[in-house]
Design brief:
Number of strands of chain A: 0
Distance between the termini of chain A: 36 Å
Number of helices of chain A: 10
Radius of gyration of chain A: 20 Å
Largest interface: A-B, 39 and 40 residues
CATH architecture of the largest domain in chain A: Orthogonal Bundle
CATH topology of the largest domain in chain A: Tetracycline Repressor, domain 2
Oligomer: homodimer
Order of helices and strands of chain A: HHHHHHHHHH
CATH class of the largest domain in chain A: Mainly Alpha
DNA sequence: GTCTATAGCCCGATAGAC
DNA sequence: GTCTATCGGGCTATAGAC
């Protein structure tokens, strides 16, 4: 199964100015109602029949726009990632400190995801399985994953402490994985306002920033090489389209 | 829902010498057939009806012993963990080097899990959700998780490089989480014989061992304190029964 | 306590007529 | 796009045999 449904608008750099067709409106209505129901009843307890009824369409039509329940989840991922990245831009601009940027960006992710806290865990479960086309390391996910890594490239870009070019090449990927981990912690966190996840974030960001600084010191060559080798190993274990071109970009 | 089914034998320090009742044999037959079917058809494609038919019992009886499909997964976890831990003992005895022990123990986990590689991912998905009583941080999972952490306590115990008492208190938990991560990588790894996951393991173990050594050096007090604080934060975010008693136990 | 048989609910997903 | 009908599968309920 592949996850790109037929009438799915490619939300890339394509023309978003065209006025929506009737079908698109229907599609969005179904999606919106599904998210509401997921939030109020949870993912598992929300049935496709409920979604269709709520959106005032027939079940079969729901399946026309979203060929499976998973496709709704995938659409959520895309929308969420897109919104999260947009909201991160001013946060990155606000400070050059790596630690502040990292905390800020992940906090932004928490804030963006807050309305969905109740069902994010269930989505994650659907997505965690290597068998699922939704898992973050699958090829269906490539686009979303790449935009996430790209976000952390901007976090690293021009930050303090300064990072060497070789580190700057691997670090975005590592930070993206850190971001995923924080997401997982946040989902599990039922403390008020997810304060525990936030405390964890602050402590981790401090440690990461310290390690990055340390890895640039002259005496840390062995550590740096080991870390880079490790990151490279992880990255190449994943069906990434290609290692980031160290060419004319930036 | 709680996961301890009624006729489930408590495999603790309880008398395992008693001869199995007829019901226990049936239970084990159902379980064994389920695992075979999972391995050959995958988790999702194996139906409860198939399992019952294969074990030559009625579906309702299957549900008597395993009130849900998830209960089969939970039984698998318990058995797997138990076998994995048993097989790890000689590995720990074989070397005092932390790096060698770490590689050896995780390799043992890979070897123990090898027969289930095809469906381990699906089980993991069922288990990853915070909503699932199967997730590794849930209270149902406490016993299994504790035995895992205890295993890594033995890995750390008496190892070289020497670790200070305060590090030795947190390190087993961190290594257990590392073990979980490696499991996740291994599941995703479809290279021949999961060679990529093994390469990752060797590289990670080297780095971890280096970091442990470094953290014990006099100049690394700040790094060590930060790492300990982080570990403690993570650990206390989890419904652990209690922080490990620093009392009379070895 | 161990087990069979049957009947059925609910839900994800599909087929095909209109 | 709409609709009905249907399937397969997780799960439940009940009645009862031994």
């Amino acid at each position: 199964m592949t996850l790109s449904a037929a009438p799915e608008p490619q939300t890339g750099a394509a023309p978003a100015t065209r006025q929506p067709t009737k079908g698109q409106l229907t599609r969005e209505r179904i999606y919106a109602r599904a998210m509401e129901l997921f939030a109020s009843n949870g993912y598992e307890k929300t049935t496709m029949r409920m979604i269709a009824e709520s959106a005032q369409v027939n079940v079969a039509l729901s399946y026309h726009y979203f060929p499976s329940k998973e496709h709704l989840v995938f659409a959520f991922y895309r929308n969420f990632t897109s919104e999260f990245i947009d909201r991160s831009a001013p946060v990155i601009a606000a400070s050059a400190r790596l630690e502040a940027r990292l905390v800020g960006v992940v906090e932004t992710m928490f804030a963006t995801a807050a309305p969905y806290h109740s069902f994010a865990g269930s989505l994650f479960a659907t997505a965690a399985s290597p068998a699922s086309p939704l898992n973050p390391f699958s090829s269906d996910f490539t686009e979303i994953r790449d935009s996430g890594i790209e976000l952390f490239r901007r976090v690293v870009d021009g930050c303090t402490p300064r990072v060497s070019a070789e580190v700057a090449e691997e670090l975005p990927f590592l930070l993206w994985m850190f971001d995923l981990s924080m997401m997982y912690c946040w989902m599990h966190d039922h403390s008020a306002h997810q304060e525990k996840a936030r405390a964890l974030l602050r402590q981790s960001a401090r440690l990461i920033s310290g390690l990055v600084r340390f890895s640039s010191s002259p005496g840390a060559g062995s550590f740096r090489r080991q870390l880079l080798a490790l990151s490279s190993l992880i990255r190449t274990s994943i069906p990434l389209p290609a290692p980031p071109p160290a060419g004319p970009a930036t």
